Amino acid sequence: MALVSSALIAHTTDLELVIRHVLAGLGQGVHAGRERGAGVEFSEYRAYAPGDEWRRVDWKLLARADRYYVREAERDSHVAVWLLLDASASMAEPSRSIQGLDKLGYARTLLACIAAIAQRQGDAFGLAVLSAGRVQFLPAARGPRQLQRVLAKLKQVQAEGELPDADVLRTGLRFTPSPSLIFAATDFLDWPSSLSSALVRLRHMRHDVRAVCLQTEAECEGSFDSGPAYRDPERNHEHNAAVFRFGADLREGYLRNREEHFATVTASLRANDVLQVAARIEQAPGEVLRQWLRQGGRR
Predict the structure, then answer these.
(1) List of residues 6+ apart from 252 with CB closer than 8 A
(2) What are the structural domains of the chain?
(3) Which pLDDT belongs to residue 17?
(4) Which of 22-31, 69-78, 235-244 has the lowest mean pLDDT?
(5) Among 87, 168, 175, 294, which residue is least crowded by beta carbons within 10 Å?
(6) How far apart are CA 291 and CA 21, in angstroms?
(7) In what order do the strands lie in the sheet with 208-215?
(8) What percentage of residues in the chain have a pLDDT greater than 70?
């Protein structure tokens, strides 16, 4: 199932088709989406208080209990949902087991699915793409047309360059001050970074920040081909950019360094109350989405 789902991402550019496939049977929203009030769906009774509307008094219960009670209900609540996509050059890293699949394509699919769910819930949602030192920002809005705008922007994205610096991110991420849901898709290879600082800052502003850290199976297991030479894609433009070869003698050190790196990432995010899901792009995206959406509830 994992291979089928990820292979679909690799072999089609139709995001709407992928969304339908991934969300089939997911049965989950972006947020709990309920708050108490004078809504439609009954929740519980409570004693009448001065100022309550008389139309909310349950007259049948009054006849039985000889006291006034009002019907407390639940109504839909709407939050702004923000999608942050790391489209720096490292996100072009491909899967070694599923041809045509890379981290950017997988991240694009996850965020497209969240946009579709937000649209169904009636939430406003927007998109920020971070690549080539710039922020491409699509303001939040509601409705099917906004979903089409987000999907069109996601389809155009190419992985290139480095993340924007801290100043560019600070001015480019124009979020409303009211608490929002922020879903960031990245690989966290660059740590600490302007993006990690921005996520921590947004969490301190009381936004619900959730990050998915995407890796390939080869990155997690150190199963790279020892033949080709590798160069850091985000520093390819530098004349002195180092070239690396990966052999069996380097695998142990690579895995040790990798474990230390991501232990630092996880500890820092946890200390700042930023939620993280670690995922391999070869996993079924529905499984990752379910885990990503299940987190939170702290707003």
Answers:
(1) none
(2) 2-32+77-294 (3.40.50.410), 34-76 (no CATH)
(3) 87
(4) 69-78
(5) 294
(6) 17
(7) 134-141, 124-131, 80-86, 181-186, 208-215, 275-280
(8) 75
- CA dist 111 and 5 (Å) reads 15
Taking residue 282's Cβ as centre, other Cβ atoms within 10 Å add up to 21
Give CA–CA dist 221/254, Å, rounded. 9
Q: Which residue has the higher pLDDT, 60 or 180?
A: 180
The predicted structure's pLDDT at residue 10: 81
pLDDT digits (tens, 9 = 90+) for 15-39: 998 888 888 767 555 665 544 333 3
**Residue 295: strand, helix, or coil:** coil
Element at 137 (helix H, strand E): strand 134-141
Map residue 265 onto helix, strand or coil.
helix
Mean pLDDT throughout 232-257?
71
Q: How confident is the model at residue 299 (pLDDT cuts 50, 70, 90)?
A: very low
**pLDDT above 70 (res 52):** no
Task: Compute, in degrees rounded to 10, the torsion defined by CA atoms 59, 65, 68, 73.
Answer: -70
Cβ contacts of 211 within 8 Å, gap of 6 or more:
183, 184, 185, 186, 188, 199, 269, 274, 275, 276, 277
DSSP code string of 76-123: E---EEEEEEE-SGGGGPBPSSSTT-BHHHHHHHHHHHHHHHHHHHT-
pTM for the model stands at 0.79
Cβ contacts of 53 within 8 Å, gap of 6 or more: 38, 70
- Count the residues in the chain: 299
Q: Which pLDDT score, from 0 to 100, does residue 12 have?
A: 80
Count Cα neighbours of 179 within 13 Å in the Cβ-side half-sphere. 13
